[in-house]
Design a protein that fits this description.
heterotrimer; A alpha/beta (326); B alpha/beta (345); C mainly alpha (293); A: four-stranded antiparallel sheet; 12 strands; 24% strand; B: 345 residues; alpha/beta; eight-stranded mixed sheet; five-stranded antiparallel sheet
């Protein structure tokens, strides 16, 4: 069964700000997640990766926010879905893991209570059956001594442990899609490695689809099957992980890789760096947003926003210089 | 070989637990830094690496005397800044001439610049305080340093809130350089920046290091950056140095089990290539108030034996300048099998 | 966030812009300015002196000659109102300055030095704040007697703990900021750090406190003088004018003797409160402006 596009984002445009000064944070995102695979979303600040997923979950603010486009999940349109319908999907079929383990758990409830709540709400489990499932979940995310941890308050757990609890909560109802928004960014390197291993392990066991958001290309590379690189509200490149690391086509992707890979003791030269900065939402340049910083920018790049084109099967790039010369 | 610029011997910093005037009575402490010794030669960059709770930031601040050490010795250019054996502890006015030579670059570009001062005033502050220049001359000098850090002179009239993270970090560097220091402690200077901006700032720091013959103590949890920038590396775990050595020595042949696991935890450059399997790290970092006995790492070490729970290993010389604090480093290096010793804690 | 702008966009200008967008704060400001002008210029314009007694025209209702009528000694109420305003507003300002000098200094010291010093200062503020205001002021006034200076002293000495706490909590928050540490690394002295880095960033809550304190002090003066513990007659203040209402006949028949004073107090306190709210919104670190103190 190939490429069952059970989660697809098409032409998603999101604008923030009061009516007179509305700026587009997302300018046309096109993504899809094949069933049972991991899509990595990578990009720096201002690229819109978090906003993309928050709009899928209906978690964007109501005021001063304009969304258009389409987000389809298993045949249903998620944008503008009434809240009651959305609540049946959120937490049950689509689950989210957030960045800050320190603040995403409610400090006045025990771990057991918080997990029990999710199970009761969506699966209708109560009493002993509920407790049994909670302990199973805690075990699944490799939390030592689940029976004791059941009664702990969040402050007793470390960051890594809390993140595991968040993952357990996300997986509680066997969701079909898990969205993880920078889940390892706030963690130490060794804890991060443990959480990455956990994600990989669970994904293989449960065959869940995952959208994994991070600014860290290394982490994304380890866990993803496909990667989409975002910049200033656009998808710049989308391909499978091997292609991205062996043959990055978009100048921005290439720049990110080079910035990262030059950091070795054998490199006595200056690091490759992408000059300039990400443009702010109010000051978007005409044409390709990356053009001012791009070593390959041509005249057309500065005038027209490039289209997202497929240059090889499963490999799309948004760049005139690349797509014209294929 | 001349004397090292910075010498730290058996540095300890303990924080009393509990608040109020009665805190010291109950005797419980957090041993943030517990006997750290290393030296940095002039023109060298020393990378201090560790995770949360390792005490790396505390060490940096003790060296600069921003935190008063509990015991130990800190020497700058052969002169004591703090020596508990001889009872020397410089006060504010005695530290003043040293402050010109030792500066600090901070992690959070948003919090390290006073939002109510113009950029120029921020950079000039040190210049005026140390009477390097006054008035218009001070402003000109500040402008010079801003330009040196890749910013335009006109940024001096504006406020920090108008700038991006990378630019703010450059302003912070300009402020530190304005006194023409010899030694700089950089405390996670890149952590709050985007990857592409990190490279820019790192290149700036490399340039300045060469141009101005700066000596660095580079504190970071990011091993790749430390590998690139630093000549020597020290790995901290819960306030103790577990391994030190030159960068090539330590990176190609890490001897301490913690260092090995730490290096293995870094995501590889090319995840699609054939990379060695990850060394699993058992458990979590223990809380600083409840430190394990003996070797602090023994509760998570795959090679721990009974001796490790009882006796704390000292930093011993393995080969050349490569030192390690582990009872079993020889056996581990020769490829002994892991054991898992469960201590009675 | 970086913006390449031609003009310098200081936090101060951003704040001023925001302030003027709020209709309440602008109204408060305007009314307050009018009141202060009235108090300052009024007596010169009315053509009467506050002391002049006109035995022919005692307790007369408002007429064209005496716009607010006369009191029981034939003195022009409008003039007395303006002069009384000078006194009441001055008390408000001076009492507030008194509170600020003591409170800001002690609050900074408590916050910055911590330890025993902090504990001692905090216990003193606790003790002072425990006592009900009027009970203490009664006692003090009984000893010292009512006068302009004493009123300022009473309001000030009982009111400084509030600003002391405000400043202390802000200092505690600010002293952990990295730019304070940077100043220490540069070698700045402790006092230098307080004045250059901490106090400027603590100005927000201090300014808000100042405006509200002036309003509160005006109110307290009026209350004290009403009870005869504040300004001594024949010197007029809004409070002493209000105390005329203690006489039931005047209360019933001669409204012009006390209502205007009451209205003045009301207007002053309201306008200062609106002004203070507007300032709080601008200087409040939680607001979504560019500047977060």
């Amino acid at each position: 069964m190939e490429n069952e596009k059970f989660f697809e984002i098409k032409d998603l445009v999101v604008k923030f700000g009061p009516p007179k000064r509305r700026n587009a944070v997302l300018k046309g995102i096109n993504l899809s997640v094949p069933k049972g695979k991991v899509l990595g979303l990578v990009g720096e600040s201002g690229c819109g990766k978090s906003v993309t997923m928050l709009s899928a979950m209906g978690l964007l603010p109501k005021r001063n926010c304009e969304i258009s486009g389409s987000i389809r999940f298993d045949g249903q349109e998620l944008l503008n879905m009434p809240v009651k319908e959305l609540q049946k999907i959120r937490g049950k079929r689509i689950a989210m893991v957030f960045q800050e383990p320190m603040t995403s758990l409610n400090p006045v409830f025990t771990i057991g209570q918080q997990l029990a709540e999710v199970l009761e709400q969506h699966e209708g489990l109560k009493g002993e059956a509920n407790k049994k499932k909670v302990l199973e979940l805690l075990n699944m995310v490799a939390i030592p001594d689940p029976a004791s941890v059941y009664d702990y308050y969040p402050f007793k757990l470390s960051g890594g442990m809390r993140q595991r609890v968040m993952i357990a909560m996300a997986l509680a109802c066997d969701p079909e899609l898990v969205i993880a928004d920078e889940p390892t960014t706030a963690l130490d390197v060794t804890t991060q490695a443990q959480i990455i291993d956990l994600f990989q392990d669970l994904q293989h066991k449960l065959n869940t689809s995952i959208v994994f958001i991070s600014h860290d290309l290394g982490v994304i590379g380890e866990i993803s099957d496909e990667i989409a690189v975002l910049y200033a509200g656009y998808v710049m490149e989308h391909c499978d992980v091997t292609t991205l690391f062996k043959n990055p086509c978009h100048p921005y992707t290439f720049g990110l890789m080079a910035s990262r890979q030059g950091r070795s003791m054998y490199n006595k030269e200056r690091l490759y760096n992408i000059p300039g900065m990400v443009p702010s939402a109010e000051n978007m340049p005409k044409g390709c947003p990356f053009a001012p910083r791009c070593p390959k920018a041509g005249e057309r790049c500065r005038q027209e926003v490039p289209e997202l084109r497929e240059i090889a099967p499963g490999h799309t790039v948004r760049c005139w210089e690349v797509s014209e010369h294929v | 070989m001349s004397e090292p610029l910075i010498e730290v011997r058996n540095l300890k910093k303990h924080f009393p637990l509990g608040k109020g005037p009665f805190a010291k009575k109950n005797g419980r402490v957090v041993k943030a830094v517990d006997g750290v010794s290393f030296s940095i030669n002039s023109g060298e960059s020393f990378g201090l690496v560790g995770e949360s709770g390792s005490g790396k930031s505390t060490t940096g601040r003790c060296i600069l005397n921003l935190l008063k050490p509990t015991s130990g010795q800190v020497y700058y250019d052969g002169k004591p800044l703090f020596d508990s054996e001889k009872g020397i502890a410089l006060n504010k006015s005695q530290m003043l001439p040293f402050r010109r030579e030792m500066q600090l670059i901070f992690q959070d570009p948003n919090a390290s610049l006073d939002p109510r001062m113009t950029v120029g005033a921020i950079v000039e502050e040190g210049i005026r305080k140390h009477k390097i220049a006054q008035g218009a001359e001070a402003s000109k000098l500040a402008g010079d340093f801003l330009e040196l850090c890749g910013l335009e002179r006109s940024t001096a009239k504006r406020y920090p809130s108008e700038f991006s993270g990378g630019q703010k970090q450059r302003i912070g560097i300009a402020r530190a350089l304005a006194l023409s220091p010899r030694f700089i402690v950089a405390d996670e200077p890149l952590s709050a920046l985007d990857v592409s901006i990190q490279s820019q700032v790192l290149n700036l720091m490399s340039e300045l290091k060469e141009k101005l013959h700066l000596t660095f103590l580079f504190i970071s949890h990011d091993l790749k950056t430390v590998e690139y920038f630093c000549d020597k590396i020290g790995v901290l775990y819960l306030g103790t140095l577990v391994e030190t050595g030159t960068t090539p020595e330590t990176m190609t042949r890490p001897l301490h089990p913690y260092t090995q696991a730490l290096f293995s935890a870094i995501p590889p450059d090319d995840p699609t290539a054939d990379n060695p399997p990850r060394i699993p790290m058992i458990g979590e970092i223990p809380s600083a108030t409840n430190m394990p006995s003996g070797c602090k790492f023994h509760t998570r070490c795959p090679y721990a034996v009974e001796r490790c729970a009882q006796e704390e290993p000292q930093l011993t010389c393995a080969e050349g300048s490569h030192c390690v604090a582990c009872h079993r480093w020889k056996e581990i290096a020769e490829g002994c099998a892991p054991t898992v010793y469960t201590s009675k804690e | 966030m970086s913006k390449e702008k031609e003009q310098v966009y200081s936090p101060f200008r951003a704040g001023v812009k925001k302030f003027f967008k709020n209709p309440f704060s602008v109204t408060g400001l305007v009314v307050l300015v009018v009141l202060v002008l009235f108090a300052v210029i009024g007596p010169m314009v009315t053509g009467y002196d506050q002391e002049t007694m006109d035995m022919m025209n005692m307790l007369k209702a408002p007429t064209a000659q005496h716009l607010l009528g006369t009191d029981d000694l034939g003195r022009d109420i409008l003039t007395r109102l303006a002069c009384g305003g000078r006194v009441s507003i001055s008390v408000g300002i001076f009492a507030t300055m008194f509170k600020l000098v003591i409170g800001v200094l002690l609050g900074s010291i408590a916050g910055l030095y911590g330890g025993v010093v902090d504990s001692v200062i905090m216990r003193i503020t606790d003790i002072i704040m425990c006592f009900p205001f009027f009970v203490i002021s009664l006692s003090i006034a009984a000893i010292t007697g009512p006068s302009f200076k004493n009123v300022i002293f009473i309001i000030g000495i009982l009111g400084w703990p509030s600003v002391c706490r405000i400043v202390r909590s802000k200092v505690l928050q600010l002293k952990n900021m990295e730019y304070v540490e940077a100043a220490q690394a540069l070698g700045l002295s402790q006092m230098g750090i307080i004045f250059r880095h901490i106090l400027p960033n603590a100005m927000g809550p201090i300014i808000v406190f100042t405006t509200l304190s002036v309003a509160n002090s005006v109110l307290l003066e009026a209350s004290l003088s009403f009870l005869g513990l504040g300004i001594a007659r024949p010197q007029s203040s809004w409070g002493t004018m209000l105390s005329a209402a203690q006489n039931t006949q005047i209360l019933r028949d001669n409204w012009w003797m006390w209502v205007p004073a009451g209205l003045m107090v009301l207007l002053t306190v309201l306008s200062i409160n609106f002004l203070g709210d507007g300032l709080a919104e601008v200087l409040d670190p939680k607001s979504k402006g560019k500047e977060g103190v």
